[in-house]
Specification:
With about 425 residues, the protein is an all-beta fold. The protein has a four-stranded antiparallel sheet with strand order 1-30-29-26, with no helix packed on it.
């Protein structure tokens, strides 16, 4: 039976700088915290004589808390903002380190930086830099991943993998309770930018990397880094997103500028299990934290999509089904993540006239009016109605059900887009038809 789903915007935030990374904290007890990273290219004015300085890559790190209290018009509250080198990627360690959440940041100075939470979730908290390691000269750190994706590792065995603009892959470990970084190995993995590197969450000795050379590669650190355990040319353009499924062993998702999401059985990398055309370069992929077959994709020029991979993983389909899309961004879809928070109260029933948090619907129309700011203009748009439907879908009365409503699964998500420097927090409600 097909599922019915809808998206509902909860809050829109202007991040001022171009937003490219959002990450909900996965550590139990801290699920209400959301980090957002930004990247801004600043061009200095030309000097006399026609010489010009190189552009500066600056950024800003935001920390927010999301409130699950019912009736809260603006549930996302800013706790902290800190200027920093431009942020290319960031991820929370899935387990606490020294009993505290730890955030890893890949920045434009070619460094991996670690920031740890201080304080408490209820009384107030902030991120504080605790460690940093340069990956090498003249490079950008492009991505990172933790070995803790299944949330089962002890802090003493935590490792981090990074990729950079020189095509290198770096493997690091945490040392001691001070969360200091130690470089275990670094190797040239790709001819051009290594856009992404990720762990196999079921075996932290196995890594994956993707680059602008259109190659997807696997590495086993036990046998050295001189030769990959496989090289796939299945993607026709740069490989920029990889994530191992934390719920099902041997399942790997990859995405590329070629606009395709591929699902793989990591034991058989000659041919993917499924190939889904999402009509936009796939910058980030995130598996749902508790529902095995659900995959969130940030598709650059074509918004954000939720894929149901159930049939593909069971072998009954050669592509995943796009079951929901979030289309309210007006620029490149870059950052995306699922929250582990449980949303308070049931999902509002369709046809009850309950609106979304934020600006009121346009009178007489029933559409949600959202104000956007971009580098070129400010304007209003009315794309979503109060029932979470999109124009030009007709407003037809919802049929009265003669029986109790089917159970609804609700998820909280955050997404961000680049040139319009906007962060969206939204919910997705899904129920059997």
């Amino acid at each position: 039976m097909a599922a019915r789903s809808r998206t509902r915007t909860l809050q829109v935030v202007d991040t001022e700088f171009s937003a490219d990374a959002v990450e909900w904290c996965p550590v139990p007890g801290w699920h209400s915290l959301l980090a957002c990273g930004t990247y801004q290219l600043q061009r200095p004015s030309d000097k006399a004589g026609g010489e010009s300085e190189p552009p500066l890559r600056v950024g800003r790190l935001y920390l927010y808390r999301f409130s699950t209290e019912e009736g809260c018009a603006a549930p996302l509250m800013e706790l902290q903002r800190a200027d920093a080198p431009a942020i290319l990627d960031m991820k929370w360690c899935h387990v606490p380190v020294s009993e505290r959440p730890l955030l890893g940041i890949a920045n434009a100075r070619g460094a991996l930086e670690l920031q740890q939470l201080t304080g408490s979730e209820k009384s107030g908290c902030a991120l504080e830099a605790v460690s940093s390691l340069d990956l090498g000269p003249d490079r950008l750190a492009l991505s990172l991943d933790w070995s803790t994706g299944r949330g089962e590792s002890s802090a003493s065995s935590v490792k981090v993998v990074c990729s950079d603009s020189k095509g290198c892959v770096s493997l690091l470990s945490l040392c001691g309770s001070a969360a200091s970084l130690h470089l275990l190995s670094q190797w040239k993995g790709h001819e051009f930018e290594a856009w992404i590197a990720a762990f196999d969450y079921w075996n932290s000795d196995v890594l994956y990397s993707g680059g602008d050379d259109c190659r997807l590669k696997g590495w086993d650190v036990r046998t050295g880094s001189s030769c990959p355990i496989f090289t796939s040319r299945r993607h026709s353009m740069g490989v920029c997103s990889i994530q191992s499924n934390p719920h099902r062993e041997h399942v790997l998702a990859t995405g590329s500028y070629d606009e395709h999401v591929l699902l793989w059985d990591s034991r058989h990398m000659k041919q993917p299990l499924a190939d889904t055309h999402v009509r936009g370069g796939v910058w980030r992929l995130k598996w749902h934290p508790s529902h095995e077959p659900l995959l969130l994709a940030a598709c650059m020029h074509n918004d954000f999509h939720i894929l149901d991979c159930r049939a593909a993983l069971d072998g009954s389909s050669e592509e995943s089904e796009i079951i929901s899309s979030y289309i309210l961004h007006n620029s490149l879809a870059y950052g995306a993540d699922w929250s582990r928070l449980s949303l308070a109260g049931p999902a509002p029933a369709e046809g009850e006239g309950e609106g979304l948090a934020g600006p009121a619907p346009v009178e007489g129309e029933g559409y949600l009016q959202i104000h956007y700011e971009s580098p070129t203009a400010s304007f209003d748009t009315a794309l979503e109605d109060v029932q979470g439907r999109y124009r030009p879908e007709p407003l037809t009365p919802a049929p009265r059900s003669q029986s109790s409503s089917p159970p609804t699964e609700s998820s909280l998500l955050a997404t961000c887009s680049f040139y319009d420097h906007v962060l969206h927090v939204w919910r997705w409600d899904c129920s059997p038809a």
